[in-house]
Each structure stands twice: as structure tokens, then as C-alpha cells.
Amino acid sequence: MTTPTLPIYLDYAATAPADARVVEVMQRYLTVDQLFANPASRSHMLGWQAEQVIEQARRQVADAIGADPREIVWTSGATEADNLALIGFMRANRERGLHLVTSTIEHKAIVDTAHALEKEGFEVTWLTPGQDGRIEPEQLRAAMRDDTALVSLMAVNNELGSINDISALAAVAHEFGAAFHTDAAQAVGRIPLDVVAQQIDLMSLSGHKTYGPKGVGALYVKRHPDIRVEALIHGGGHERGMRSGTLPTHQIAGMGEAFALMQQQYDEDNAHIMGLQQRFLRGLEGLDGVFSNTPLNDTEKRAVPNILNLAFEGVDGESLLMALRDVAVSTGSACNSASVDPSYVLLGIGTPRSLALSSLRFSFGRFTTEADIDHALALIRHAVSGLRTPPRQAAD
Ligand SMILES: *Cc1c(COP(=O)(O)O)cnc(C)c1O
């Protein structure tokens, strides 16, 4: 018998493990001998102290994106931040217009929310990206109307790693008097973010994609009279009235620490990940019929280095996933009872259905080692060759 080992984790884009330093901070705010008090309690010292912890984390998250701490609204994650940005902004700005512009390859937290807005009577224009997964400013310009209130386009795509030029896209939105929202859940720590320089009005953030805990995120809401957001969750009027609910001190302190660590080791993390990506790509060179759905090999930096979405021609993605049971990766496909639907993101950039069904997303992170990459490569080569070999006669 062999000892069971954990699979090699190459699914950082789905979630990253929390950094041990983050967990250490989180453990300070839960039990009776600690700072467990409600940060909204104004009547005692313990409440004020908990509030100070929240405010420090607010500064850490704000610093990471060049915002003012007063512009950070805590949420339960990027999904809630996306809902608050789209629904909250569109409902609060009906007099500006009922038109929203977004794209077909946004995260489901945007796609499904935009569909919900359509049912509520808002009108949505769905932009189709190029093969490189990017929306061009000229495309956005052509979609803008007098009644466009908001444009929402993601900074980094979670399945492809493709990068949008959010600064140029925001400029187009503003030319037409619309506000600009970006889902930056995959962008933090991967590309430089500065809400002032890039002129972002609303930005969604997540804790767990950046080595923080799951279940916490934030929406950056620019402090400007034109950027009004209506609450979706009503209660005690926390977070400038935009999001009620007792603040989870441990989650928020963890996200703050994670974002501070991200800033401290931004260069180190990215150099490490770039090295892993190069090693992974070199290791695949000997394997025929491998295509990258992630835009590669250019100086324009059209994709982040931690996500590689690859198509293995002639190999069924689900079978490959099964054959690679010692490597944790994902397909973007959705399983129904009857069949497997290819990833809507891959179809959205024009990938043929058969190639989309042959694709897997590999994503690396801070704790991935060169040994992980080498081991995964050996398993991939073996699995792909095995699945491509025509089945042999049973009797030999
Ligand atoms: C993970 C992710 C989300 C959802 O974030 P949660 O914090 O898990 O709700 C939203 N958008 C993108 C692009 C993501 O990658």
C-alpha cells in the first residue's frame, strides 16, 4: 500500500489557501479572552478596540488599491460586491438611465446579476470579447448610449487570465457620463491597481483569491456625489448605510493582513509565479496538440502568469480530469444531468466546442513549488498519451 498523498493543488484561481500569517491574525478576535466584541458597540472599550481592528484592515485594503479607507465597504465576498455594485448602482441611478454595459465572459456573479436586472426592467448590452479574451475600448465606445448609467468589465478573467485595459475602458465610460465598475477579484496581487490613476468608480474585491479567508470581500465605492449605491441588505445602517450586518472582525482582519502581505511581496510572488509558468510551458513542449486559450508570448502583457487555460486536442477534458486525480485543476464546463456544457467563457472567445471540451485550467500561486510543477507535468504527459492511444485488443 502506498501512503495517500494530497493532490498537487493547481487550482489557485478557484481559491487560494490562506497564508499562515493571515490565520494567525484571525485567531485573535474570536474567544472570550480576546477582542471578540462587536465593532459597532459604542458603549464600551472592547467595542472601540474591535472597531480599531476593522479600521486598520480598511486602511490595508484601501492602500492596496490606492483608495481612501472611507471608500471600502465590507461584504461577504466578491459575489456580494458584484451584486451590490450592479443592482445597488442601477437602482440608485434610474434618472441617469436604465442601460448597463458588460461582457459575455464576466464571472457568473456579474452575468447572473445582469440577467436579474434585465428581469427588473433594466437593459443590458453584452459585449463579445476577442479571441484574446479582451474587450477593446472602441467596442465599448460603439455600445455606449445617452442612457448608459454603468459599465462593468472585469480586470482579469478568472478562466483565461486575460487582462482588460481597465484604465482605457473607464475613460470611455466617463466620456459618455457613465460610471465604471470592475471585478478585480483575480487582479489583486497580479496587476497594479490604483483606483485614482485608473479612474475606477466601483471595484469588487475578494479575500480568498489573495491568500485571505473565504467569506469576506469588499466593494470600493468612490466618494463622489455621482457614485451612489443603494443597499441590498438592510439593518443597522453599517458601512455608510450600504451594507448592514455585524462586521466579522476575524474575517476582515484576515483580509486586511492578506492584502498587506500581497503589497509587501508583490514582486517576489510574481517572479516566483512567472518562473513556474515558464517551467510548465517548457515541460509541455514535447506534447503535441496542446493549445493555449490564454493569450501568451507577447510583450503586451495580455494575461496574468498564474492562469494557464490549455486545450489538449483529441482528449476529453472530463476524462483527463479523472485521469489526473492526483492534480487538482478545473474545467470551466458545467455538468448537467444529461451532458457536459463547455465553458461559456471559452465559447465566448470563439473556441470551437470540441476544443473547449478538451480544455483544463491550471492556476498556480505563492505556495506552488517547482517540484509540484514537475510532478504535475509527468502526470499530464502520461494521462494525455494514455487517453490518445487507440484502445488495444483485449487479449494481450
Ligand atoms: C472568485 C471570483 C468571484 C467570487 O468571489 P467570492 O469572494 O468567492 O464571492 C467573483 N469574480 C471573480 C472574477 C472571481 O474570480
From TrEMBL:
Domain Aminotransferase class V residue range list: 8-374
Family indicated by similarity: Belongs to the class-V pyridoxal-phosphate-dependent aminotransferase family. NifS/IscS subfamily.
GO MF, any single term: metal ion binding
Statement: the UniProt record of this protein carries the keyword Manganese: no
Keywords: 2Fe-2S, Iron, Iron-sulfur, Metal-binding, Pyridoxal phosphate, Transferase
Reaction(s) catalysed (UniProt annotation): (sulfur carrier)-H + L-cysteine = (sulfur carrier)-SH + L-alanine
Name of the protein described by the UniProt record: cysteine desulfurase
Claim: Protein transport is one of the keywords in the record: no
Top EC category: transferase
Pfam families assigned to the protein according to its UniProt record, in alphabetical order: Aminotran_5 (PF00266)
Cofactor(s) this protein requires: pyridoxal 5'-phosphate
EC number: 2.8.1.7
Gene3D superfamilies reported in the protein's UniProt record: Aspartate Aminotransferase, domain 1, Type I PLP-dependent aspartate aminotransferase-like (Major domain)
